[in-house]
Specification:
single chain, about 270 residues, alpha/beta
Length: about 270
């Protein structure tokens, strides 16, 4: 039974650790390391405000500046002569593609990936402008040999063609931006696993403690008869010495009394 208890404790501990890691939300396969955003994105308001909300959240989760910032503005350009002096939209061209009419500026640029935020209800293939934009990013990503990651809302409808284009670069379309009231299904499973593991750990721990206590009681020597019970043996020797002393005293007293009795008769 001890083997069973130890195996159960070990399994429960491993499951609890796995559940805690899932709840930490730090092991997802995308540059943020997260399955979902650190905070909900705006879903109402102006189109610009909604888009900027997603970009700001993603900037924090990626720990990268927005490519919109004046000191960034790295572009995918049509030719090496762009940008020209006085053009503020692109500070530098880091990739080139003749399929681009002028330039493209992704939301985030890193030496190891390109990332785009799409905080919207649908990513549909009927939207020609978005198709061309994502297609140009994918061309640049393949030319640079880096993945393209497109982050959308958890409830965004994504046409499979977008997934194909993005996955060809080694990246993916990630349902990422949470909405008010969203509950991650992995978190639900993790909490249940953690609760079950905790119950098993408590039960098996109490069982083991009880088994150890019973074992100790069974092996504990009885007072005065157990081997190695020096205190008990010392007490026995002391009692025997006292008894011997009393017996000798009684015999000596009887001897005196007998001698006195003989003297009285003589």
């Amino acid at each position: 039974m001890r083997v069973f208890r130890y195996a159960s404790l070990t399994g429960a501990l491993l499951l609890a650790i796995a559940a805690i890691i899932v709840l930490l939300n730090i092991t997802a396969r995308n540059p943020t390391g997260r399955r979902y955003s650190s905070e909900p994105a705006m879903t109402s308001g102006t189109t610009q405000g909604i888009g900027t909300s997603g970009e700001r959240i993603l900037a924090k989760d990626l720990n990268l500046p927005r490519n919109e910032d004046p000191d960034q503005r790295q572009c995918i350009c049509n030719n090496p002569q762009y940008p020209v002096a006085g053009v503020a939209e692109c500070r530098v061209c880091y990739a080139y593609s003749q399929s681009i009419a002028n330039y493209r500026r992704p939301d985030f640029v890193s030496p190891s990936f390109i990332a785009e935020s799409k905080n919207r209800q649908g990513l549909l293939y009927s939207d020609t402008q978005t198709v061309n934009q994502i297609g140009d990013y994918a061309i640049a990503a393949r030319a640079l040999n880096v993945p393209l990651w497109v982050y959308v809302r958890v409830d965004t409808r994504v046409d499979p063609e977008f997934q194909r284009i993005v996955r060809d670069t080694g990246g993916d379309v990630i349902p990422y931006f949470t909405t008010p009231g969203y509950v991650d299904p992995w978190n639900v499973v993790a909490w249940r696993v953690l609760a079950g593991s905790g119950a098993v750990i408590i039960i098996m721990g109490l069982w083991e403690a009880g088994a150890v206590a019973v074992s100790r009681r069974r092996t504990k020597p009885k007072r005065g008869t157990g081997n190695g019970d020096s205190a008990s043996r010392a007490e026995q020797r002391a009692d025997a010495a006292v008894n011997f002393k009393d017996q000798m005293k009684d015999r000596f007293q009887r001897s005196i009394d007998e001698d006195d009795s003989r003297d009285d008769f003589e």
